[in-house]
Amino acid sequence: MRRADRLFRIVELVRGRRLSTAAWLAERLEVSERTIYRDVADLIAQGVPIEGEAGVGYRMGAGYELPPLMFSRAEAQALVAVVRMARDRIGSIQAQAAENALGKIMSVLPPAERAAAERLQLYAPTYGFDDMTRHMLDSVMAATEMRRKLRLQYETEGGDGSERIVRPLGTLYWGRAWTLVAWCELRNDFRSFRIDRIQALDTLGETWRDEPEQTLQAYFRRERARMEACGEYEPALDPSSVPRAPRPAPAGGMARDIARDIARDTSSHTSTGHASSEDGGPQHRPQDSRPPDEDDPFGR
Fold first, then answer.
1. 118 φ, ψ to 5°?
2. How far is CA 102 from CA 5, 131, 151, in A?
């Protein structure tokens, strides 16, 4: 990679994350950390507002923008593939937004790249999430982003009902089901709720602040510790490292099929404990695509 291309990639990577360490940048760009330190120093000298320091991490100062870039043929095809796979598996609001965004991208592509993307022979059959499930998913994801507490009317596989006040931390996709990972105020612990078993949902006006060991990162760390204790931990699929949710006013989207992506974002930490679930017994689904159950939160 030419140095000019590498400098441009550094700017892109730092802009796309809350905090990027030199080690992470070096791994992504296949260079040494010393090279990253030198390149970042040169970018700062040229007026790029990168904040941070060696050993801590870097972030982009507010207001810095790069000129728009044209997508390559492969990138355009990848976007089409992702939208086709996701649109029947996400909430209806996000599905429409994805279609709109893809339409805008396609409209500015050169004719050859647009034609190549449109004729991509890749399709994904729908699993038939009903409208209520997709509506619940929209509501859960909106509450998670706004950090608003939820009141859930929930029904387990066995038909038992309960009402909970929870802090929604994140949603996980298991191939044929979505689950909400939340901090349950009744149990004072983490719980997982199948989105398609939420009977009613109210978004409350009350918000919350992160507390130690009550975050999504803490949940994944506990699952890593559990996996290690059971001899199931695989470093390449480490689920314990996810980017922290952005705070409202800073000063400065488990299963094997998602763990690869979330494991790349931050360094991992270890803890002990066990995260349980409100989901009842195991679901009879293919391996690696089941939502969590009481005995095995990874559904394996």
1. -70, -30
2. 26, 23, 34
